[in-house]
Input
Amino acid sequence: MHESTGWARDLSVEVAGRGVVSHAGSVAVRALADRTGLTAGLSRALARRGFEPVHDRGRVLADTAVTIADGGRVLSDLAVLRDQGELFGPVASDPTLWRTLDGIGDLQRDKLAAARAKTRRHVWDRIVARHGAIPASPVADRDLGRTIVIRLDATLVVAHSDKERAAGTYKGSWGHHPLTAWCDNTGENLAVKLRTGSAGSNTVTDHIEVLTSAIGQIPASFRRDLLITCDGAGATKDLLAHITTLNAAPGRRVHYSVGFDLDSRCRNAIGNVPEPLWENVINPDGTARDLKDAGVVELTGLLRASAGPGGHTIDQLKTWPKDMRVIVRRERPHPGAQLSLFEEADGWR
Output
């Protein structure tokens, strides 16, 4: 066992009043990083010829991840591990952690991503060996089977001081606006792009970059059936065109489920839907909601073949992918909800 991962060699647990461990859950997370090979992989990714640090750089990064998983919010929270030397052994100081992070450039980030992907491939293989498959992504009263779901989403991280790259956000706060990608099947974070607080929600270059990194984290044998999701803010024509090109690879199916702007063309189409065509919304337990409370219908046909000036048929989705479908859901708003003029007209949201 390598020196940086040998701290748990003689570790034992007893129910008694001696050697009480603070934040005991961090022990399991740290051991898991070691046993799956993540710590060693990070060490190899950051290795430098002729440089033998006192604290192995992979160990430093793994301990930082453990600290974050344990609720740490600032780098100095690494002291939670460092203050328990009898259990964890020597843990890096704050300056060492700063130097470790400062030494990571583009090349190192690529190597770290490769190390994470290798570890994930090993872990997924173990999951399949034990359970027969990767967990399915649940949808209503069923699941998506073998489909791997990647969820793209931007989030706001508020900064209470003038942090590097912090800026004003679209909600009037101050901080960062990172873009993230998550695997819905396993709950794992696949990729993150740190962005300034003023970064847009629909920046297609950022979405394609994060999506590409996320797919690279999925083991190759699981990339043949993917579903990409994002909300309406990130759903641009260029992003969907990019996903459509991924679907062209032989033996690969890459679908998307994204938000779509409820603009005037969609509102007009909704107004032309015959009432009997609305179908029931399904609850998580498989029961159907009353059509008086909620309904769902497809608008694609009405939008693809709309009546234009002079009776001519026009395609209102001609700039979007040809195989895209538009589906709308409506429901009665809860009492006191603020309705738009469109919603006030018929009482549906």
Q: What stands out?
A: The longest strand covers residues 148-154. The chain has three domains: 3-107, 136-258, 264-346. The CA atoms of residues 205 and 239 lie 8 Å apart. Residues 106-131 form the longest helix (26 residues).
